[in-house]
Amino acid sequence: YLIINMQEAPKLTQDQCKAALDDAIEAFKVEENKQKILNILAEVAKLPPDQQIMARMMQVLPAVQEIQQNALDKYGFNFPGGAMQAMMQIQVASQNDPAMAAKVQQLMQIAQGNFDAAK
């Protein structure tokens, strides 16, 4: 039997979700983090087109999650998969909040390397 140890994720309030979302966006404005993503994207772009999607998933996604996890550490999401669990809560919290939903979209754009969205 395979037992997966899933840590219980902290439950965020609506205000905490808003603050965590802002923190996650701010993390991508840090030059070191921005360069990390841009460098990975530059390496991925050198690959044949048919390999780029998989390379993005294997290289960009973990880097994005690491940056987000560091930003979300103070909310208790400092465990493997924590950033993903936090973002799921934030997305649910943003469903009835248009301003927050726009920030979720902004974060998704940034995570794909569109740093113009970070402004």
Give an overview in words.
The chain has 5 helices and no strands. With 119 residues, it is an all-alpha fold. Helix 1 crosses helix 3 (49-72), helix 1 packs parallel to helix 5 and helix 3 (49-72) packs across helix 4 (82-93). The protein is globular. The termini are far apart. The mean pLDDT is 88.
N→C terminal distance: 48 Å
Shape designation = globular
Number of helices: 5
What would you call the structural class? mainly alpha
Strand tally is 0
Task: Compile the SSE list and pairings.
Layout: H1 14-27, H2 31-45, H3 49-72, H4 82-93, H5 98-111
Helix pairs in contact: 1-3, 1-4, 1-5, 2-3, 3-4
Short description:
The chain is mainly alpha-helical and 119 residues long. Helices cover 66% and strands 0% of the residues.
Key phrases:
119 residues; 5 helices; mainly alpha
